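User: Hello! I'm new to structural biology and keep hearing that structure can be predicted from sequence alone. Could you demonstrate with Nonsense-mediated mRNA decay factor SMG8? Please show me the input and the output so I can see what each looks like.

Assistant: Of course. The first part below is the input, the amino acid sequence of Nonsense-mediated mRNA decay factor SMG8. The second part is the output, the predicted structure written as tokens.
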Amino acid sequence: MRQKVLATKAVYTAQTGIVVAEEIGDILKEFCVFDKVVAVTVDNAANMDVAIKRLQFVKLGCFAHTLNLAAQSLYSSSLVAQWTAKIRAIIVWMKRSSMAKVVLREKQDVLKGDFTKAEHFIRLMRVLYTCTLCVSTEKSPSAGQILPIIQKLEKHFAPLNGDTAFVADLKNRVWRNLSARYKNEDIRFFLEEATALDPRFKNKMVNNAAVWERIKGKLLANSEESAPAAVHDHAEEVSVTQGEGNQEGLKTDSEEEEENQPPPSKQSKKSPLEELFAEEDAMKRTSQEGSRSQGAGAMVVPVDMETLLREQGGLLGGAPAAGGEEGLCVVGVFGKSGLQPGSLKESLMDTLLDRHVFPTFASSLPGAGGCGLQVLHEPERRVLYVLMSSACDSRELLRTCAAMSSGSAHTDAHELWKSLEREHCLHLLYMFSVCHVMLLVHPNHTFDVTYDRLFRAVDALRQKVLPLLRAAIKDCPVSKEWKLNCRPCPPRLLFVFHMNGTLKVSTGPDTGANPEKPKKHSPRRRLQHALEDQIYRIFRKSRVLTNQSSNCVFTVPVNQAFVYVVPGPEEDPVGSVLGQLQAQCALGEQQSVLGPKRYHLMRRSTMAPTPPEVGSGPFSGAPQDCSLKEFLWQHIELVLSKKGFDDSVGRNPQPSHLELPSFSKWLQVASRLHQVMLGPLEDEHKELLLKVQNQLKVLEGFLDADAKFSDSRCQKALPLAHSAYQSNLPHNYTSTVHKNQLAQALRVYSQHARGVAFQRYALQLHDDCYKFWSSGHQLCEERSLSDQHCVHKFHLLPQPGEKPDLDHNPPILQHNSRGRSTSSCNCGRKQATREDPFDLQAANYDFYKALEEKCCGKLEHLDFPVFESSTADPAPASEPEQQGPAEGTGPEDKSHTPGEAQSLSLALSLGHSTDSLEHFGEGDSTEAPRHKRPSLLDRQPSTVEYLAGMMHSGCPKGLLPKFSSWSLLKLGPSKLYNCHVGLEQPSFLPGSSFLLPWDLVIRSRSEEEGLSQSLDSSGLWPVPNKSVSGKRGGPGGPGRSRRRDDVARLYVGFCYEDSRGRRFISSGPDKILKVLGPGGAKEPASRVLSTDMPLYMPSPSQGRGLKLHLAQLSHLYILVPDAPLEVTLSPQVQPGPPPCPLFHPEQPEVVLPPDGLWVLRFPFAFATERGPCFPPKDGQPLSDYRLLRGVLRACPVPPPHP
């Protein structure tokens, strides 16, 4: 094919997918290549998708366009939009403003965050730009480079723990857009096969074997189909090939050589694809050169330790290297860095290597705020450098702080720092185990004494894990001394300090020194000697260094320098700039003012400074200081020459071992120790790694000084808090008192306790106080139905048939609040003393049932329906979920609530509830219904589930309680009551035992039948100067023509009873009936029947104390005459403020038979399935506790028809 474009056609119709498919198909058929198309690359338009799908080709979207779309997705981010707008506004302003530079110099600190974002943006998007160039600038792009580029981008845009919100948002948006591409399985297989066939990327596939199996299958299938055609065309191809080969064969070889060797000027420039995969290619070359050149590799760039150990797996698993391999010296570099833009360790490495290896503004080392190791190999010098980055570096420390959330507690930050210190110690121990020389770098010229604590911790950890390390390397091809000591030699520790500009040596005449007398050593040399003496004394005193070097974690030389101070800048750059500015802005006295001023200034600024005279300086006679490279190489040469370190002192110094391993041997030992000490978890070394991790607890005593101080401080504060809790405590007390005393103890504790252990000991104080309270000092938390606490200490309730046992632990007995009251029986004729009830059945049923056997058992009763079980074990109905929490259920701590399975009194013993009903759901009724309420027994009552509480307006229909809390009985016929004498029952106040009369008119047959007379109508009240309608002799004409009507008189009495048994009848909501003369009560009953009656009234006989005594509505007496009347009883009680439910009997409406004195006994206590309704407390209005009007309705019964 001579041209890459087969044909060009113009489409004048709509460019739909069908039209495009027809045009492409015609061109392919014209050139007879329709069945030879492998894939089609088009843009990402929808019509192209339809066209390629119609042609049944594999469609590969334009990869450069895909990368462009992924980059464009960033602009939808609000963070990027705000940042770019701010940068754009600054740039426009700087172009237009003449004072921009001056203002920018003043305001540039404000824009530091924006410039940081710009650096992150460029660093992140540069790879995407390079990927675009790989596709766009390639002369012959292939589909085989798509998957490797995507894998590279996936690794680059993977989120890290230390990423800022800005960087995380950028990565998320770009990769979310890219990951949605190439999801089709056919396209994925095609790209994998193309990558495998591309010689540049054939080894970058994860499932390489599966891909080659597919390629093999396709090749076999194609060979079988094309075998006959290949035989036919072979002869023609041979002739053509030979003819062309004779003419062009010689030319091809020379042209290929010229093409493969680019000009010298272009050899240094890498293509975008080479730049993108530079790190992978370097690792590949390192592996190849290492296997070729005696197991060692030339690492052009620093390589992560884990990557090195993983990529060199072939070396690790093979046989040991030959004996002719040259050994290498391993140098470890660690330490701290200041706030400089670049890392001190990396800049020192550039100095030692005599080349710029690390970038000035390099990204953080692996670890995301933790520790990371990088390896750099110099094969020509036989030195391997191991560079450690940790949280002691300012760059990693900033990443760690940025990764922490803003709301993290002080304890969380301390725990994070402790974990980083443990990781730092473990990495240091690893470096001390694989290195010959250790180089400690410090950002200033003063020794940090915390290193003494750190090295003692590493030494203690080494003694603990040494047996584990021996077991890990027992199979490695190294000497016995190495296997015994788990290191090639006792590493020598060297120190490198930096001058920070604070030390200045003045050379002027005012210094007082004699300039003619030369100094033996320079100030920097004297500083190095002083630091050496200080470091040696500190380490000897703390026994980090001992006489025998083999027993130490590291050594320092005895007769060699081990401290080097890197000289700082000769002059302060800021002061130099200010001095030059001052010199440029002022003329000297001896200068001539003739001529242009600019000429003089420029000439002065360009004049070279006069060199100092030889011997004029104060240090002219001092020996020259060595460089950093010379300082380090005098120690490395001892290792390479196999002389070793003779650092032991004392009378009988023992020689230390030294082994110079080859690269392959060192790699095997380093890999095995890395797996055991630093992970990851693997099956064969998992057990050893876990054992090493368990030994890290030995570091706590060395590293966590803050925690030790905090523990000591909190332990002293704990007894003071215990004393504060136990002060002024009764023997038994409730949870409220316990919580108040605990709060007081915590206040005392917080005044003295400090540090990270504060929370831990505060929890211990909480547990100690609870244990003290629960061990014999806990008061029963159960409250009676009158809202009184049980006075017993914590106890159990007896089971049915079980007797109380005070000797049991905890004791078994009933609740008792020591409250007693006097109450009347169902009929009111007999009174008895009762205990303060804790159970609804004891309050409303058991007490009255016991008195009924002695008094009113033979009277006529109207029984209310109750639950009748059809099973042997009936269950109470579940509580409705929509009900709100009851009163008393607050946010109390339930963590120490005793077990409910033991029927403990503190936790709803035997189903008793301690909650009140002052808070109810919104759906409960708040007002009394004006109409006849619907029956709750519309359906058949349940015989499986019963109602746990009493019948009320919020309970589900069809459920009945196991007992009735109401009682309705007949005292006798109507003639039993004498209106002149009143009720002949005990404990009534004088003149308050009379029932109130209620007159009702019974109309004749000629009147409207079925009318019921309203209780609040005006016909109930006599009108002055007007006789009753229908009476003889009454005024008015129609009175004579009507028949005489009958008037029926009923009697009603609302009886109240206080806790002392005193009773009275109420004649109104706030009035006690008092009849002084004969004739009985004169006040009509219509007043009390037409209004809400209070459930509680102040008792007329108050005690000596200030507490208000209340009398409760206990009975309702109704005298029904022998008359054609239908009297309906429908009581509804609201025992609390809204939205308290309305309580009613199990039969809401009861028709009372005529000719009888009936008495309705009200419940002593009210409770639902969620808890009791407590009586009103002091200050609560009594009007919220009421019996709703409409309790009685009466209407005449028409006479039967003849």
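User: So the tokens describe the shape?

Assistant: Right, they're a compact way of writing down the 3D structure. Reading them back into a model, for example: The chain has a mean pLDDT of 76.
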